């Protein structure tokens, strides 16, 4: 075969596996070899079970030999985000408090992906308790960007995105509250989807009604991302917000054209999220490509008044709910920014929560009105290009100083408040070779339409085909 197996798209691998052109053991071994070669450079995987993965691959091959019908992810290796519970394999959340924590159950997402045939390789690195969009923690250190290892890979699904870009796995799971799927996808030149809340149900959890943080898929292509979504999505009675649409809805061809699509473009979310000039220099020429594909492109943005305060209020409340007990028992073991996030939650008043709830309702209705006039909204995924990996966060954005590690993430987290699907698609590179992503945003529950638009743009540009300059193999 001309290409090493770890270089192939997930859909291609899946088809070859079903035809028995290749074996699951060959696929897993190819990725294990790549991990041994490259992971020391990028630090994307932090737990690895090669023996377990090869044993699972052998069982997968035996099923095909017996003539069994195999599920859609049959034989595809995946390392799960280290905030997602994995039965019998440590889940650390990037915290010393959980360094030896081995759960006795799987997250629903993990359970579903393994039932769909995925083979567990290990775990991908995260910021401590997934707080922030730069992946570093005191247990495992910093994940490096495969395109420039002096730069951030983003976060909190930074280990997942770096592993995809570096060829360590063909698919990756993640989660997104304020951009944790989209930012690392943009930084690492891969695809990440924040689905409509409820599209991928969550269990277990302390707040099963939460719609601010959502699990979701990543891939090197939009089609691979849709394949993974098809295995994640679908209703579950334990999740009160889960949507009824079955996951198989997304296992369909995405081909089509964009002629007649009404697209709104906003370079700065109407002034709420100014972007650096090098980001816009990459993204603005992409609008001409979309016009050539038959789209009508206007400059417009929904009213986002109050979205920033609403996100920060709801996020602080969620941190207190999830981690407040640890603040009481192990305050000194938490990084200062997490302590501050929890304390912000504890300072909230009933009036604060009432205002956030009412504002979010108003934003939802305004979003529906906006999407009655436009099919899609396009925006930068991130306001900055991948920054110095030694920093906790950029110190300024577009000439404005940042006061916290959230300030540079507005172009992602303001969209989170709207409860809509948002897809990060590779959109090109700066002159210095740093990736930039374009955010495709659709109406609530229009995940498939967003995927189809992203696929058409990807097919026309092929920016995602540019691979990082890492050790060959």
Automatic annotation (TrEMBL):
Residues 26-451 form the Amidase domain. InterPro entries: Amidase (IPR000120), Amidase_CS (IPR020556), Amidase_dom (IPR023631), AS_sf (IPR036928). Pfam families: Amidase (PF01425). Gene3D superfamilies: Amidase signature (AS) domain. Signal peptide: none annotated. This is Amidase. It comes from Streptomyces caniferus.
């Amino acid at each position: 075969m001309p290409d090493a197996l770890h270089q192939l798209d997930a859909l291609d691998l899946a088809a070859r596996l079903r035809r028995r052109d290749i074996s699951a053991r060959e696929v897993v071994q190819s990725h294990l070899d790549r991990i041994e070669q490259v992971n020391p450079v990028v630090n994307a995987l932090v737990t690895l079970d090669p023996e377990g993965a090869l044993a699972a691959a052998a069982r997968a091959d035996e099923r095909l030999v017996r003539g069994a019908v195999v599920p859609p992810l049959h034989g595809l290796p995946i390392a799960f985000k280290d905030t997602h519970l994995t039965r019998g394999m440590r889940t650390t959340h990037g915290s010393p408090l959980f360094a030896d924590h081995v759960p006795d159950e799987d997250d629903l997402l993990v359970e579903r992906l393994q039932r769909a045939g995925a083979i567990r390789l290990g775990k991908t690195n995260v910021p401590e308790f997934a707080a922030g969009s730069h992946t570093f923690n005191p247990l495992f250190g910093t994940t490096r960007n495969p395109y420039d290892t002096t730069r951030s890979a983003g976060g909190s699904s930074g280990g997942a995105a770096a592993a995809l870009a570096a060829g360590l796995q063909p698919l990756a799971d993640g989660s997104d509250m304020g951009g944790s799927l989209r930012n690392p996808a943009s930084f690492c030149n891969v695809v990440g989807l924040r689905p409509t809340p409820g599209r991928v149900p969550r269990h277990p959890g302390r707040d099963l009604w939460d719609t601010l943080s959502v699990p979701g898929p990543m891939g090197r292509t939009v089609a691979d991302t849709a394949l993974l979504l098809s295995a994640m999505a679908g209703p579950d009675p334990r999740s009160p917000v889960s949507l009824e649409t079955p996951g198989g809805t997304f296992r369909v061809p995405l081909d089509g054209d964009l002629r007649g699509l009404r697209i709104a473009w906003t370079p700065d979310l109407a002034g709420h999220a100014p972007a650096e000039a090098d980001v816009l220099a990459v993204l603005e020429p992409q609008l001409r490509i979309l016009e050539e594909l038959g789209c009508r492109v206007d400059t417009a943005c929904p009213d986002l008044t109050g979205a920033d305060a609403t996100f920060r209020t709801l996020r602080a409340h969620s941190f207190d709910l999830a981690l407040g007990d640890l603040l009481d028992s192990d305050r000194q073991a938490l990084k200062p920014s997490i302590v501050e996030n929890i304390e912000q939650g504890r300072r909230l008043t009933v009036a604060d929560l009432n205002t956030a709830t009412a504002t979010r309702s108003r934003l939802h209705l305004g979003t529906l009105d906006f999407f009655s006039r436009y099919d899609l909204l396009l925006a930068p995924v991130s306001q900055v290009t991948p920054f110095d990996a030694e920093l906790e966060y950029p110190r300024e954005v577009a000439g404005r100083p940042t006061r916290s590690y959230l300030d540079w993430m507005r172009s992602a987290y303001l969209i989170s408040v709207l409860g809509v699907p948002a897809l990060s698609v590779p959109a090109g590179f700066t002159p210095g070779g740093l990736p930039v992503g374009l955010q495709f945003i659709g109406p609530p529950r229009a995940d498939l339409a967003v995927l189809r638009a992203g696929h058409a743009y990807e097919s026309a540009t092929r920016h995602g085909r540019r691979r990082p300059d890492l050790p060959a193999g």
